[in-house]
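REQUEST FORM: STRUCTURE PREDICTION
Request ID: SP-0412
Submitted by: Lab K.M.
Chain count: 1
Length (residues): 745
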Amino acid sequence: MCRGGAKAGRGLSLLSFGIFALLVFGSIGGAGAAEVSVEADSISYENDGGLLAAEGSVRATWDDKLLKAGSLSFEQETGVLSARSGLSLSSPDMEFRASSVRLLLDDETGSFEDVEAWLKDNSAWFGGDRIEKTSDRGFRVKRGYYSTCERQEGASPDWSISGSEIDVDLDGYARVNNASFRVRGVPVLYLPYVALPSKLGRESGLLFPRIGTSNDRGFLYSQPFFWAIDKHRDATFSVDIETSARIGGTGEYRYRPSRKTTGVLSVEYFNESVRGDQESEIVSPELSNRQIPNDRGSIQGKHRQGLDSGLLLYADYMAVSDDLYFREVSPGGRTDLTQQLRDSRRYADSTAGVMGSTGYRSYGLSSSLYRDFYGPGGSRRFTAQRPIGAWLREDGGAGNGSYSFSATADYFRRRQGADGQRLDTVAGLEIPLLTGGAVEVSSWMKGRLTGYSFDDRSTWRDGVEQPARRLSAQAIRGLGEAGVDARAVLVRDYSLQGGLMRHTLEPVARLAWTSGSHGELPLWDDVDRIEGKRVATLGLESRFLRAAGPGDLPVERAMLALTQSYRLDEKVLGNHFSDLDFAVAVDPSSSLSFSGLASYNTGRNVLTGAVAAVDYSSSPLAALGGRQGRILAAYHFVRDGLADSLRTRASLGLSERTTLAVKLDYDFVSHKFLEKGLSLRFGGDCDCWAVDVGVSSTINPDELEFKLLIELSGLVDLGSSATQRDQALLGYLAGREDKGWRSSW
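STATUS: Completed
RESULT:
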C-alpha cells in the first residue's frame, strides 16, 4: 500500500543516507535525559541497580517514542543501551527495524545491525547491514541502499541506489565506495568511488540539465548552476542554448540578510545571431515592429526592506530589450502558466516607494514607470506616467458608524497628452440603519474635492494627428456620493439522505447617487473617470451546503449569484439596464465540478462575455486496471469575436502504470488549434518513477517540440512534459472564487 509520494529533488544525492541515519539516531537520542518506562515479561536489576535487564515482549517508551525488542539492557553509569531480537522503533516521523542496537546515550553514538527504516509521510525508505554513528555529525553505512519505491517482500524495488561502504560527514561530503544505481535489482550505472556534498545546508554545484528539441529553435539545452554564497544569499546561473534561435544565459541572485529585508534580481541575455530570420514569426495586428535585435534580454528585480521606524521600502523593476522578448523567449523551460502570463503582458512596469502605518492611519510615497509593448514608437513608448505620488488614509469610528479620509497628491508625466499635478481628497461616513437581524441596512456618503494644474494641456483622440482640444491651465472638481445598502440572509435547514442540507437566499440591494462631473479633465486614471449617475443595483445569491451529519464540516455543493444594475438618469447601450452578471458553481460529487461566469445584455439580447470550466475525474478502464483519468476544460468568450476559445486537458489511465494525456487549445475565431499536445506517461508503483514522452505544436509561432520528462521521486526531475503541469491555467481562466462557509449551524 502506498504511503505517499516523496517529493522530487533537484539532483541525485547520497545525502539521503546521512539524513536517514540522523533521524534513526535522533529517534533514540535523548533517552538518557528523558524518563524511560520499560515493560517486559521479566525485569531484573544487577550491580546494585546499575544495570537493568528486560526479557520477553520488551516495550520501552520515552517522550513520543516506542521501542519493542525481545531483550533490552541499560547500564545506568555508562549510559549504554542495548537491544536485540525483533527490534523495532516507532516515532512520529519514522519507523525502523533492526536485528540489534547498541547506543551510547551520553554522546549519542553507537551502531545498528541489519537496519530498515522508512519515513511515515512518504514512501522513502532506507537500509543497510550496519549503521555506525562515529561522531556528532558523522556516520558510516555498510552495504547501504535507498529508494522511494514501495517495499515488497521478496522483490527488488523498481529503482534504488546503493554503496558497499558510505562515509557521511554532515558538515562535509558523502564518500561512497562501489556506488550503483539499480533497476529491479540490476545495476545499470556503476561508479567505483563517488564524493558528493552532504551538508544539511545548501551547497554550490551543478543542477540537472534541461534538454529538448524543436523544429523552430533546434536542439534545446539548459545547464543550471547553484551558488550557495552564504546563509543569507544564493544565486542560480544557467547557460541556455537553442541551436537554431539563440545562445545566452540567465542569472538570479536572492538575498535575505534579515527578517525585514529580502529581494531578488534576475538578468537574462541572449544573442540571436544563429537564427536565420531576424523577423519574428509571431503575428499580431498590434505589433508594428517584428524585427528582432541581435542582442536582447531583460532585467527584473524585487526588494523589500522594513525600517526600524516601521516604514517599508519597496521596489519592483522590469526592463526588456524589445516588445517581443517575453513572447519569444522562454529560458529554462518555464511552465505553461508562467509562460502564458509572460506572453500576455501588455507592458513592462516598475514601481518604487515607501509606506507605513500607525493605528488606523496609513501613508506612503510611490513612483511608477511603464514601457508599452504595443503600437508604433518602440522605445519611445516608455513613459514615467506617475513619477511621484503621495497618499494618506485614515479610518475610525464615529458613534455607531465609521468614517474614512484619504488624500493623494500625484504628478503625471506621459509620452503624449496632458501632464500635470493632481490633488484628490475624499471624506466618507457610513452609518448602520438596521442591524442584528436577518436584514441589515446601512447608509453611506462621500465628499470628493479634486484640483488640477496642467503643464501640457493637450488631449488626443485615436487616429487624429493634431490635438483634439486644449484644457484650461487649472481646474477644480467637486463630487458628492451617497447611497443605501441592504442585505438579507434567509436560511433553511433540512435533512437529505441521512445528512444535513442548508439552503440560503441572500438578496442584496444598493441605491447610489453621484453628482455631475467636470468635462474639461484628462483621463489619467479611475479618479478622473468618475461621472455623475444614479444607479440601483439588485442581486441574489443562493447556496446549497451539505454535511454528512451533525458536527461534520459542511461542503458547498452549488452556488448561484445574479446581479444587475438600472441607470435611473440615462440609457446605456439603448436601455437603462446594465448587463446581467451571473456566476454559478456546482459540485455534485467529489469527481465532478462546474463553474462559470457570464454577462448578458438584456437590451440587445446578446451574451457579452462568458467563462466556463469543467473538471471531471473518472476511471473508465478500471476493470482493466486503468488508473483514474481526468478531463479539464475552460471556455472563454468575449462578444464580437474578440475572444472565443476552448482549452482542454485530458488524461486516460490505460493501465495501472500507463497514462495517455492530450492537450488541445482551439480558437473558434480563426477556426484553428492554437496548441496541441500528446504524451504517454509510464510510471511505477506509488509514482516512485515516471517517464513522460510527448510532442506539442503551436501555430503562433509555428513550432513543433518533442519533450521528454524523467522523474525519480525524491531524487531527480529531468526534462519537461508536453501536457502536464499546466492544469492551473484552467483555474486561472475560469476565475472561480471559493465562497466558503459563512455561518455555523
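NOTES: The helical segments are 15-28, 325-328, 336-343, 728-734.
Reviewed by: T.R.
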